[in-house]
Amino acid sequence: MKKLWLALVGLVLAFSASAAQFTDGQQYVTLDKPVAGKPQVMEFFSFFCPHCYQFEEIYHVGDAVKKTLPEGVKVTKYHVDFLGGDLGPIVTHAWAVAMALGVEDRVTAPIFDGIQKTQTITDPASLKDAFVKAAGIKPEDYDAAWNSFAVKALVAQQQKAAADVDLRGVPAMFVNGKYMVNNGGLDTSSMDNFVQQYANVVKFLIEKQ
């Protein structure tokens, strides 16, 4: 019984020590103006951003975060307009199509690869083609979604969310409309440490409320 008690005390102390390592201005930043009515966890990214590509396709930061989230909590991903020149807003619109059709996971890697690796996505037509090939979306269904009110609303939603949190760069993750994970303040001694700490910070901020 004594051993069990000591083990439990050890777990509590370990959690306290871990939590104590996460401080405002270091591993996370409290927003000057909290934003109400937003998804509990928001991730902003761009298919044109090399760091976003690394986060998603190489280090799988999003997957690590998802594993630590409480039941019923998900990551809502928004694309930003300010990278990619004239194609940036078009890709944001296409991401809204992906959200509306529920095919985000199926098109993420092909779009990243098409823009950053093979450079085969260079205009609206080649972007649409990625949806048809990767997600099995019929061209006419893609067009219908593109022109739908729901997708236009999702485009506006992404743009407003970025403005509401005064987004300055990507990749960026916000929790409870109050906190932003500070990428530069995390442990970079190894990528595994960085990814695990990133996920732990998000979990800590969700519980912090």
UniProtKB/TrEMBL annotation:
S-S bonds: 49-52
Signal peptide (from-to): 1-19
First-listed, main subcellular location of the protein, grouped into a coarse class: periplasm
Domain Thioredoxin residues, every copy: 6-160
UniProt-listed CDD domains: DsbA_DsbA
Any single GO CC term annotated in Swiss-Prot or TrEMBL for this entry: periplasmic space
Location of this chain's protein in the cell: Periplasm
GO molecular function: disulfide oxidoreductase activity
A Pfam family assignment: DSBA
Keywords, alphabetical: Disulfide bond, Periplasm, Redox-active center, Signal
Gene3D superfamilies: Glutaredoxin
PANTHER family named among the record's database cross-references: THIOL:DISULFIDE INTERCHANGE PROTEIN DSBA (PTHR35891)
Protein family: Belongs to the thioredoxin family. DsbA subfamily.
Entry protein name: Thiol:disulfide interchange protein
Organism: Mixta theicola
